[in-house]
């Protein structure tokens, strides 16, 4: 005969209510008790009827991650998968399943409305790339549990979490000044790229505090691509007033920058310091290994997972904050 919830409660020395709370991922149960109950469930080969339980609770125990994917996204945006892994870990620990839905911004509103009406998801983690005014209005009017990864670029009711890229830029500039560099350059993505804009803003704020001038020709903006990083570095080096350190807005730009410096016969860090942001995909394989302002995007995913679970339990919870503080990882390029 198959084991029942009563059998689990008896063997674990807890109440049926406690077993139920463990299965539902309740925060009121200690980790020690939860581990004991889960161990007994395994030993007894107990498998709760999830469909029946979810029907009674009107819960699917599912969160949908809504984002725009496509061929090559793993190379152009490797951070996304670290974020996904973090979300999945946080949800799995509380008995939730993560489903990924790739969709455009135009389709996101209809997708979320349909999933909400069909009760196939309890909440949504939404990437900022698929936001719209229409989606904002739907989520606000329907009070849909959600958390946005990234800062909306328009006034909204969204709950969101993001990395403090301005602080990351400040850390990069402060670090270089403390290492004795006196003339800096910044090469980044397009002007409309908000990550680049915030990081540059942070750099400029620190230089202003220390009365350090960043010449106009020491700021180059293009594409977040290796070739663009190469070209922008060549442009910086073509001037007579060369800097003694370059801040690269991301790893792809840094890859191109390092190759350009090597082709110019410049030694890193003796003749040119280089610092970038994020610890992958290239910072540890380039020669020399790059000093970075690291952002733990896995932790960002974990925090997103915890926030959406809080929103599911307390729909009126309002969150708009920067999380996961950046930190310097010092290596050989400065």
Keywords:
6-stranded parallel β-sheet, 45% helix, elongated, single chain, 12 strands, 334 residues, alpha/beta, 16% strand, 6-stranded mixed β-sheet
Task: Describe the fold and architecture.
By secondary structure, the chain is an alpha/beta fold. It is built from 13 helices and twelve strands. The protein has helices at 5-12, 16-23, 31-43, 50-57, 73-76, 79-92, 105-117, 133-142, 165-178, 194-209, 226-237, 251-263, 297-313; strands spanning 62-67, 97-102, 123-127, 146-149, 160-163, 184-188, 219-221, 245-248, 273-277, 291-294, 320-323, 327-329. A six-stranded parallel sheet has the order 2-1-3-4-5-11, sandwiched between helices. The termini are far apart. The model has no long low-confidence stretch (mean pLDDT 91).
**Strands, total number:** 12
Overall pLDDT: 91
Order of helical and strand elements = HHHHEHHEHEHEEHEHEHEHEEHEE
End-to-end separation: 67 Å
How many helices in DSSP terms?
13
**SSE class:** alpha/beta
Radius of gyration: 24 Å
Model regions low in confidence, pLDDT < 50 over at least 5 residues: none
Described by the principal axes of the CA atoms, the overall outline is elongated
Major β-sheet, in short?
A: 6 strands, parallel
Portion of residues within helices:
40-55%
**Percent in strands:** 15-25%
What strand line-up does the widest sheet have?
Answer: 2-1-3-4-5-11
